[in-house]
Amino acid sequence: MNSVRSVYIGVGGVILATAALCFAAEQEKQKPPSSYSPVVMGQSFADTVAKMEAAKPAIEARHSALLRERYDLSDRPAQGVTMSRGKTVQEGVRAKLSPGVSSWKELGAMTPAEVRAKGLWPKGFYPLPHPNHPEGGMVFPKHHIDKMKQQEGRDLTRFDLDFDLPEHFLPEYPPPIYLTTRTDLGDVSQGQVIGLSNYFALFNGILNPKQLEGMRLLVTPFPQQQFNATDDRRSLKPSLGVTCFDCHVNGHSNGTTHLVGDIRPQPFRHRLDTPSLRGVNIQRLFGSQRALKSIEDFTEFEQRAAYFDGDPVIAAKKGVNVLERGSQVHFMAEVQSILDFPPAPKLNVYGVLDPKKATESELRGQEVFFNKGHCAVCHPAPYYTDNLMHNLRAERFFKPVMINGRMASADGPIKTFVLRGIKDSPPYLHDGRLLTLEDTVEFFNLLLETQLTEQEKKDLTAFMRCL
C-alpha cells in the first residue's frame, strides 16, 4: 500500500508541477505592458548563462546578415586623410541602394512619397538596431575590452553578445586629449588610455585638485545594468561596473553602443552611438533626445538613470552610485568642460576656411555647406551646432517596419550634434547608422531634397574633413 501511495503522490506532484508551469506560461502571455524590468529573476544565473550562450550564435548571425545586407563593410581608407593621431578615415558611400534604383542621383530626384510608395529607402538609412535589440545594454568593442583587461584588470566581456561594427569604422584608439586650459601642450594623453592606474601620473601638475578628483571619478567603475554583482548581470563574474570613460574613452568615444533609457516599449528604444565629450563647454543640450540643459545634469542623469536603462528600481537593486551634486558632480563636469576639439589648421578664428590654406574642392564644399546644402541652418560656424533640436521626419520616406526587434518609424526631435572634429567621430547620426561622411552627405541630400551633384557631394565631404 505504501508503494502504491508513493506512486500516486509522485504522479500527483508531476501533474501539479505541469499545471503550475502551464499556468505560469499563460500568465506570462497575459502580462500587461510594463515600464519596469523584473526585480526578481525567474531562473538561476547558471540557467540564464546557458540559455543566452546557446542563443548567441543565431542572434549574432542574424545581425551580421543584416549589416552585410545594408552596407559595404570592406576596409577602404581615404588616401591622405587621417584622424588626429593617424588612423585612416574610411571613404565612400557604404549604404547599399535598394533594388529598383540604379544610382543615388536617380533616388535623389524622387519625392519622399515616391520613395515611400516604391519601397526604395536604402536599408542602411533605416534606424540601426542594437546587436540584440530585445535585450539591449552596453556592448564594448573588443579592442577596449582587451585593453581594460590588460591595464585595469576589469573584464567588460558579455557572455551573451559581442560588438557588431568592424573596428575600421570606429574612432582611433586611444584618442588624443586636448585641453582648453592648456592648448600649448597639445595631446596630453601621451598615447595612453586613461584609467585608475595612470590618471594621476598623467594629470598631476596639469589639472587642479578639483579636476583631479573629477578625473578619478570619471575613470572609477560603478555598477551598471549589465555589469554589476547581481544575478541578472551579463558578465560571467560579479563586476565592479563600468566607468564614464569606458564609453567616452579619453573624453572622446570608442563606438560603444547601448539603448537610450528614456523610451518604452523596447522595440521603440533607439540604439545609441556614444558621442564625443570634446567641446561640451560650448554645448547647451545633452543627450540625443533628452535635452538636458547642463553637463552637470547629464553627468548625474547618466549614473542615476542611463546606466540602468532609466529604471530607478533596478538601479537601487544593482547599486546605483548616487553622486553628490555640490562636489562630485561639479568636479566631474569641470573636467568634461575643458576637453577641447582637435586642431583644425585650415580654419581661421571665425571657424571657416582660410583661403590660403584650403584646396579648391574644400572651398567649393564650404560654399555648398553654407548655401545649397542648407547644412549651416542647423550647423553654423564656428562650432557647427545651433544647440537646438530638430525633427528630420525621415519617416516621410518609408513605411514603419520591424527590423531585428527595432521598430523603424518616426525618430522624433534629435539634437544638433557638433561637427567640429567630425572626421574623428565615426559612425554618424544618433544611432550610428551612417558609417562614413559620404553616407551622411547622401542621407541628408535625400532628407533635405537638395539634389546635390556628384561633384558637390565630393566637395562637401572634403570640407567636413577640415572641421
Give a verbal description of the structure.
The protein has about 475 residues and is mainly alpha-helical. The protein folds into 2 domains: about 70-130 and about 355-465, Cytochrome c-like domain (Cytochrome Bc1 Complex, Chain D, domain 2, Orthogonal Bundle); about 140-335, no CATH class. Helices cover about 35% and strands about 5% of the residues. The chain contains 14 helices and 8 strands. It has helices at about 1-30, 45-70, 105-110, 110-120, 140-150, 200-205, 210-220, 245, 295-305, 310-320, 325-335, 360-370, 435-445, 455-465, and strands at about 75-80, 90, 255-260, 270-275, 390, 400-405, 405-410, 415. The strands form 4 sheets. It has a two-stranded antiparallel sheet. About 40% of the residues are buried. Mean pLDDT is about 95; it is low at about 1-30.
Keywords:
5% strand; 467 residues; Cytochrome Bc1 Complex, Chain D, domain 2; 2 domains; two-stranded antiparallel sheet
Q: Averaging pLDDT over every residue, what do you get?
A: 93
In total, how many domains does the architecture comprise?
2
What is the CA-atom radius of gyration, in angstroms? 25 Å
The coarse silhouette is: globular
Distance between the termini: 89 Å
> How many strand segments?
8
N-to-C series of helices and strands: HHEEHHHHHHEEHHHHEEEEHH
Number of helices: 14
Taking pLDDT < 50 over at least 5 consecutive residues as the criterion, the unreliable ranges are 1-28
